[in-house]
Write a structure and sequence with these properties.
Elements lengths: L8 H42 L6 H4 L2 H9 L2 H14 L3 H15 L5 H19 L1 E7 L1 H5 L6 E6 L6 H8 L7 E4 L8 H7 L3 E2 L7 H16 L4 E3 L17 H7 L10 E10 L5 H6 L10 H20 L8 E6 L3 E2 H8 L8 H22 L4 H11 L5 E2 H17 L11 H14 L3 E4 L2 E4 L4 H9 L9
Length: about 475
């Protein structure tokens, strides 16, 4: 019993590693998971008492469960069968592809990351870059949305900051799930985006298996009551004008919609505008013939360089914010009421008829968004300067023209953000932004556009072009 047992070093090392792994997997991991799960449940309970729209169960479902639900969804399985038959692909290969697509699409919402880390980051980023303002919101309409509805925020797409800005402004109302393009699928950005509840979309993909998986995820999210935010334009505006809406995601949402069903879909128009769009020159360059396509990794590197440069300026006390960033939230539009007014039952329509009606809905939604675009100093001053680009104007002349244009816009119902309720300050802020960016020359206290920068000025003027009365 007291004899010494000699073991080789490799056996002792292996045994020690096995014991350490057992302690880690059987004691530490379950304990840590229990701790964070308990904290998360307490946070979710607190948030559901505070938010206008509660976090739905589908947003809290484990990601692996959602992936499995997609892979074994009857409509996806039928698509797999058809795909194997027509393409001659082995079934296990097709199912493997479906699982890959499902893993790519399904988010990994984490309430802690969204409402603790995400809220802190969105606040810091937006307030570092801009003077952030909520210009207008139909508070009564938003407050009276049926909690059992699926809410879809329909937005124009000016900048990649849109995601952060709207999430920040809607933080006390709802947890939003975005459809994000492939540009963001770079490490570690994609992990953070997934944790914030967003899902990735391959725009323009013709892969039928992928499209079916994406369609079923969007439908599951809508049927589960998840609040979503979509950009019907399908991408950033390259010239500042509103783009023609694409109907892909909207069509997915409507394909199975029953006006007499238990859950309504409510669309909330959201309109954004900025005194400076960070990507303005890049977007304009893409309009040039033979413009080179930039990858998501290139966009991420550019964004990081931009952030680092501005952080350095901030540390040296030389960073000036980029003017105002403003969002307006319009009146909710009930899909149930909309379809009933047309005598339309989407899920019964043949594809061609449904698509035409979805196009009509998309155009109406974008019309509402267009009417809500905030009129900001840079957009309005750019409009004035472009009316006679060769003319030098004094501040007094700019104030007179601004007053006339603001009155015209106000009489047509445009949503004007007037800083400090002061038209003089409105002009001062706009001119300062344009001169700091060297878009406008100053000479003897008079101002005129820089000729080579006219495309940039036109980009900002285009944001409100549709609001101006025709001559």
């Amino acid at each position: 019993m007291n004899q010494t047992v000699m073991l080789p070093l490799w056996a002792v090392t292996a045994g020690g590693l096995l014991v350490a792994w057992a302690v880690y997997s059987l004691l530490l991991v379950p304990g840590v998971r229990w701790f964070f799960r308990r904290r998360a449940n307490l946070l979710i309970g607190e948030l559901n008492d505070r938010l206008d729209l509660r976090i739905p169960p589908i947003a809290l479902t484990r990601r692996k469960v959602m992936v499995d639900r997609l892979v074994y969804d009857p409509r996806v399985i039928q698509e797999v069968d058809d795909y194997c038959e027509t393409e001659g692909v082995p079934r296990d290969v097709a199912v493997s592809r479906v699982r890959h697509y499902a893993s790519e699409v399904v988010p990994a919402f984490n309430a802690y990351i969204y409402f603790r880390f995400g809220s802190w980051v969105s606040k810091r980023i937006t307030e570092l870059l801009y003077r952030v303002r909520l210009g207008y919101a139909d508070e009564d309409g938003l407050h009276n949305i049926d909690p059992n509805s699926s809410v879809v925020f329909v937005m124009n797409h000016r900048s990649n900051v849109d995601y952060v800005l709207v999430a920040y402004l809607a933080l006390n109302r709802v947890a939003l799930s975005y459809a994000v393009g492939e540009w963001a699928r770079v490490w570690p950005l994609q992990q953070l985006i997934r944790a914030m509840g967003a899902y990735f979309v391959r725009r323009g993909s013709g892969n039928r298996l992928y499209r079916r998986v994406l369609e079923r995820y969007v439908q599951m999210a809508v049927e589960g009551g998840a609040a979503q935010a979509v950009f019907p334009e399908g991408g950033l505006s390259r010239d500042g004008l509103l783009r023609e809406p694409r109907i892909g995601l909207l069509d997915y949402m409507l394909r199975r919609f029953d006006p007499d069903g238990d859950r309504d879909i409510v669309f909330v128009p959201v309109a954004l505008n900025y005194d400076r769009v960070l990507e303005d020159r890049t977007l304009l360059a893409e309009n040039e013939p033979h413009a080179e396509h930039k990858s998501g990794a290139h966009a991420a590197r550019t964004a990081m360089r931009f952030a680092a440069r501005n952080l350095w300026l901030k540390m040296r006390g030389k960073l000036y914010r980029f003017g105002y960033a403003c969002a307006n939230f319009g009146s909710p539009i009930s899909l149930r009421e909309y379809t009933r007014s047309l005598g339309w039952t989407p899920y019964r329509d043949p594809p061609d008829t449904r698509i035409e009606r979805v196009k009509g809905l998309a155009e109406e939604l974008m019309l509402k968004v267009g009417e809500l675009i905030p009129v900001l100093p840079v957009s309005l001053l750019a409009t004035i300067f472009l009316s006679e680009p060769e003319r030098w104007r004094s501040i007094a002349e700019l104030q007179t023209e601004t007053k006339t244009l603001l009155a015209s816009l106000g009489s047509s119902g445009a949503r004007i953000y007037l800083p400090r309720d002061d038209e003089g300050y409105f002009v001062t802020v706009g001119v300062r932004m344009l001169t700091l960016r060297r878009l406008v020359d100053e000479r003897g206290k008079k101002y005129r556009p820089v000729e080579r920068e006219l495309p940039v000025l036109r980009y900002y003027a285009n944001a409100i072009q549709h609001l101006l009365k025709p001559n």
